Amino acid sequence: MILSRPRRALLGLAAAALALPLLAACGGGSDSADGPLTIYSGRSEELVGPLFAQFTEQTGIAVEARYGDTAELAAQLLEEGDASPAQVFFAQDAGALGAVDAAGLFAPLPASVQTTVPQDYRAANGDWTGVTGRARVIAYDAEQVPAADVPQSVFDLTDPKWKGQVAIAPTNASFQAFVTAMRVSQGDEVTRQWLEGMVANDVQTYEKNALILDAVDTGQAQLGLVNHYYWYEKAAEVGADAMRAQIAFTKPDDPGSLVNVAGVGILTGAADNPNAAKFVEWLLTPETQAWFVENTFEYPLVPAVASAEGLPALDTLRGPDVALAELADLPGTLAMLEDVGLI
Predict the structure, then answer these.
(1) Residue 60 phi, psi dihedral angles, 5° rounding
(2) Cβ contact 137:174 at 8 Å
(3) Phi, psi (5° rounding) for residue 284?
(4) CA dist., res. 236 & res. 79, Å (int)
(5) Nearest CA to 284 among 127, 125, 123, 112?
(6) pLDDT reported for residue 172
(7) Quick one: fold of 5-133+260-314?
(8) Residue ranges per domain, the chain?
(9) 134-258 adopts what CATH topology?
(10) DSSP per residue over 14-32, as a string?
(11) Taking the alpha carbons of 13, 19, 20, 21 in that order, is the dihedral positive or negative?
(12) What is the pLDDT of residues 31-45, one digit of tens each?
């Protein structure tokens, strides 16, 4: 039997508790500054490959990146334990960072960056930090759905009037983090009922957020759950006036307006590696934060750096009252998504 990527990730995460004791004595990423810096990146090569090249150009530190799905890489880190060659984990969402941190695989970050970003967007124990932020939004086809009719809560998406007209990406890390936030804020029973309601309402599934936005923009779906920056990227490319798709935030405290982060942590095997520390520090410089603003339309998390024009201020977005560190139960979310038939 060939396992899907999320299924393999689920099995890897579930096996971590058994694997870690066996691997702990094996040694892993080096504290030495000799050789390239090994980064496990849940952010795509297309996106951050040029950024890593800039880091090398500016610092002289070579980077050896292993790219993959964030959940898969988290599972791999948990399976490898202290034997992992990874020195840095650059993850797409806080849930994966929390899962790795819960296994004791992160070293404390350098004191110079532990409090650089606001406390809502980093681990309280100083083991990982957010780098950029993104908000969940509802994309809607303005030609079919008036703005006043856009649901104000994700729980309204199970209404029969939206049957077959809602698009989600259940294998995407951002959707999985959103589901985890719903589990934390609303409980497993409510979350499972919502997922089952979405399935019963013939929810449409896509692999990626960008494909959802395209489906809404061409009228194939009336509504879709995506991250905010996909709309801004497409608007910058084709012009906002040329798009049928628009976006709306759900009401305050609704899981649909979760603000999540892409973030970074240093593996224990590289606790004293100066190059790993320099990389994290470099990600949080104003220049690098501005690079994300200009190239991805994500929210910068360093307060002195301005967001992209047109974005609502980050501190005005009110998602569920959930600490990002509480999104660590990725295995439980994957299991639930599998149980209801979404992965």
Answers:
(1) 80, 5
(2) no
(3) -100, 10
(4) 41
(5) 112
(6) 87
(7) D-Maltodextrin-Binding Protein; domain 2 (3.40.190)
(8) 5-133+260-314, 134-258
(9) D-Maltodextrin-Binding Protein; domain 2 (3.40.190)
(10) HHHHHHHHHHTTS--S-S-
(11) positive
(12) 666 789 999 999 999
Contacts of 202 by beta carbon, 8 Å cutoff, 6+ apart: 163, 164
pTM: 0.85
Instruction: Give whole-number Cα distances, 119 to 123, 294, 301, 324, 330, in Å.
Output: 7, 24, 10, 10, 22
Q: Computed from CA positions of residues 183, 80, 107, 261, in that sequence, does the dihedral angle turn out positive or negative?
A: negative
Q: Which amino acid is at 39?
A: I
Q: Please say whether the beta carbons of 92 and 42 come within 8 A.
A: yes
CA distance 67 to 72: 10
Whole-angstrom CA distances from 212 to 76, 127, 139, 172, 207 are 28, 34, 9, 11, 8
Other beta carbons within 10 angstroms of residue 283's beta carbon come to: 27
Beta bridge partners of residue 248, listed in sequence order: 138
How many Å apart are CA 51 and CA 138, to the nearest integer?
A: 29
Is 134-258 in the same CATH topology as 5-133+260-314?
Answer: yes
pLDDT at position 331, please? Answer: 85
Handedness of CA 289, 305, 276, 25 (dihedral sign): negative
Token digits of residue 176: 């999985």
- Which residue spans within the chain are E strands per DSSP? 37-41, 63-67, 88-91, 106-107, 128-141, 166-168, 204-205, 223-227, 245-248, 259-267, 299-300
Q: Over the stretch 244-296, which tens digit does the pLDDT of each residue have? A: 999 999 999 999 999 999 999 999 999 999 999 999 999 999 999 999 999 99
Separation CA 15–CA 26 (nearest Å): 18
CA separation for the pair 135, 313 (Å, rounded): 11
Residue 71 tokens read as 């959940």
* Res 231 pLDDT > 70: yes
Sign of CA dihedral 58, 61, 66, 72: negative
